[in-house]
């Protein structure tokens, strides 16, 4: 065991610097008079392993005196996040930020003078390279957040940065079927093409169905209507609370240039961060996890002979390689795979493509005419609780010969919708 002075010294230095220093303190603070330094080599190796194992589980433990900023920036999707202490306050903070963005977006669209040039640009285009269809419905709760206006403001800003050749054409698909208008969609009509069901189509859609089937039918309507209007080469469907990141179109362009895009039914552009961990039934993540551990362990053992400030006695051997592989694997899982994926944002070419998972559909890319096939597949299925459209699509891609589906990581959108337009909402939504 370590002496109390060693533990205190390690803790103080850890709070003031980086975590690896903790390992060095425990390793080098013993004096030459300590009998542990004069044990056989094997015993020394064993004790060093114990030291490293101890460091692993204390190196990132959140200090109870740390502020909300550190928790918010690093630990929300980590095992170290303390829900009972931080979740409520963080959720409230995010709600306030989203409300402020929603009000800013409302003032933005209300303050722009209507322009005949802006509203006519869409009509002059045929067969664009990419069409973005934003599916929206009126929210009966959280209307002050104006999610649709936030998304369209972000899209407008990104599109203006594309230059003379637009990155995509944008279509708003308003599927509101209630007695009240979708005011946010109405506000956008001077600037974007907004489509709705005709009176005849509304009559044909009056039958009583469950929420999940209704949501699926709305999705199919928007898919087909976008194709009928423009015959685009590729279609992206965004839900009205899917806020695109600034590199959205750059990454999409790179994805469409890759060979796999020619033979896929759909590409998911979002997967919930809480479901992106390594400890997941998806086989490719297990392989990625083991590979990360092997690379980290090999690199460390190759460096130690040349740079070893902590005086570790490890060497490149099977037992040490296995130990450090497991060490790096556990450390990566505890820290959170979601945060490691963020490194890939350095370049569109670094975004990873993998087999698609079940949940969810806030942002979907349909290359070529895949949107028509998806609409036909969904039409042939009936949705209900436990068999929503995302699960139906996943099962179709898995069971239909010749069909494949993919997912891109990290996410290309941020899911900002705390209040749903189709499901029961809690009194105060939370992040997790």
UniProtKB/TrEMBL annotation:
<dbReference type="GO" id="GO:0006506">
    <property type="term" value="P:GPI anchor biosynthetic process"/>
</dbReference>
<dbReference type="InterPro" id="IPR029675">
    <property type="entry name" value="PGAP4"/>
</dbReference>
<keyword id="KW-0472">Membrane</keyword>
<protein>
    <recommendedName>
        <fullName>Transmembrane protein 246</fullName>
    </recommendedName>
</protein>
<feature type="transmembrane region" description="Helical">
    <location>
        <begin position="286"/>
        <end position="307"/>
    </location>
</feature>
<keyword id="KW-0812">Transmembrane</keyword>
<keyword id="KW-1133">Transmembrane helix</keyword>
<feature type="transmembrane region" description="Helical">
    <location>
        <begin position="319"/>
        <end position="336"/>
    </location>
</feature>
<dbReference type="GO" id="GO:0016757">
    <property type="term" value="F:glycosyltransferase activity"/>
</dbReference>
<dbReference type="GO" id="GO:0000139">
    <property type="term" value="C:Golgi membrane"/>
</dbReference>
